[in-house]
Please model this.
Amino acid sequence: MSRETLLLRYHEVAIKGDNRGWFERRLAHNARQRIYRSLNVTSGVQISRTHGRILLETEWNLITKDALDCVFGLSSYSPIQKVSTEKKEILNQALAEFKKYADQYGLPKTFRVKTRRSDKALSDSSQEIDRWIGSAIRDRYPILEVDLKHPDFTLGIEIRFGKTFIWTEKIPGPGGLPVGSNAAVLCLISGGIDSPVAAIRTLRRGSPTQFIHFYGAPFVGEEALQKVEDLIRIINRYHPETGKLYVIFFGKIQEQIALVTNPKMRTILYRRMMIRIANRVAKTLKIEALVTGESLGQVASQTLENLAVIHSASHLPIFCPLITYDKDEIIQQAHQWGTFETSIRPATDCCTLFADRHPLLHTSLAAVEEEECKFSVNHLVEEALSSITPSLKPARSPVEEWDLPNSVVLPI
Model:
């Protein structure tokens, strides 16, 4: 395996003003940790910051590439060659890098040279360096044409305070903010298409994500839980450290609600119970917000009126990253992030248990609270959480397992 120096670039982090250094350090930490996880090592990655860029020295292979493709905050990255900022050194290395590329991929039809200068060690302007290096390449390969807008190949040169970096490949990153630059959230995760996408989009905005799943056992099979576990393994590819899954056994609670309530309101009643339980778990973990995969009007429980009723059960803010997305857009995102094929595996979702075929589209808080008077809300919440130990730690720390009949935590 080869060892390379990689130049990591960022976009949104660069506009953070006086806080920029903190965001850069978080991004650098995440990149290193993500590579450690992928390579299954605890050392060997050297990383440093240099005037708007991050330099990372590590093994360079497909495993490393896959790891960096999952580091939110990166706009792009490139394997580079470092040379001293002297015209002869830059020219020789540029020609060598072009030849290496042509030997590997064949001679491109069009090319350009793109220079950026962070200092004025050379008196030449960026455009003058472009023309000088470009002319030398054309002299060696006369059939090449220059295309400044849409070239087949770009040779990049960055002159940066005593060193010059030369690259021939600019790999797009996933963008966003570094995970950990915002506070942690608790995501209500199902086995469907929507909630895994919502979780990943929340990670992309910098919030570490823990997960809570309401498992319909004994009325659904183990395949439903296995599917959720597999989804979280995929989501955790985008986590520098892995988020944990908290499982609430919810089937018996649903059965008790279904025995005494209006079938047309059951899904809303279930969702309000889930929100209450998630609030309690979040409070124990010192998490200040919930995340759901809800999309406005997508199903009966997600009309504006019904969402307002469901969310009114929460003491915490509820973020809905997909609230304005249509289903096709969510499916496209699921393909992009790699969750789609797992999400469409057949398995029963707990929200459909004992539910009516024609639920109410427009309910009211008064009507739902009247239904909730027919069962003991607090008792059912406590039943779900009865075995949470007092020693449960905040989400940013290792979390102790809930060794319980009603609730379990799975390290995914």
